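Exercise 7. Given the encoded structure of a 120-residue chain, write a plausible sequence.
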């Protein structure tokens, strides 16, 4: 019985090691800007809108207002979603140094430069 438990523990440890070595593919800025280029298929448009909206909504949901000053301040009336995405695609094309960077971080940086908060 002890041998069975030792074998199971070894298999579990090896399985965990194998999973730890897996890499997770992160969407690059170039990949996102390619998906977001217009005209886009309905699938590409949905993916682009979903991804960019999720990044911005995650920023809003995770930023603690008392501990972290906002760095993205969208004034109302806000530009259309399509305009912001189009501006991001243009930004990505004009800044090839960010092409291989993770899209979520670059998109947040783009939003911060496009919609800076007033300094107090």
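Solution.
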């Amino acid at each position: 019985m002890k041998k069975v438990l030792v074998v199971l523990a070894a298999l579990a440890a090896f399985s965990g090691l194998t999973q730890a070595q897996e890499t997770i593919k992160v969407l690059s800025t170039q990949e996102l800007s390619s998906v977001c280029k217009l005209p886009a298929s309905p699938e590409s448009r949905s993916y682009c809108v979903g991804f960019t909206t999720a990044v911005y909504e995650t920023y809003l949901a995770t930023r603690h207002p008392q501990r972290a000053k906002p760095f993205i301040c969208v004034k109302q009336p806000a530009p259309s979603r399509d305009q912001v995405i189009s501006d991001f695609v243009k930004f990505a094309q004009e800044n090839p140094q960010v092409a291989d960077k993770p899209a979520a971080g670059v998109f947040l940086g783009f939003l911060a430069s496009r919609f800076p908060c007033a300094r107090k």
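Remark. DSSP finds five helices and no strands in the chain. Students should compare their own answers with the one above.
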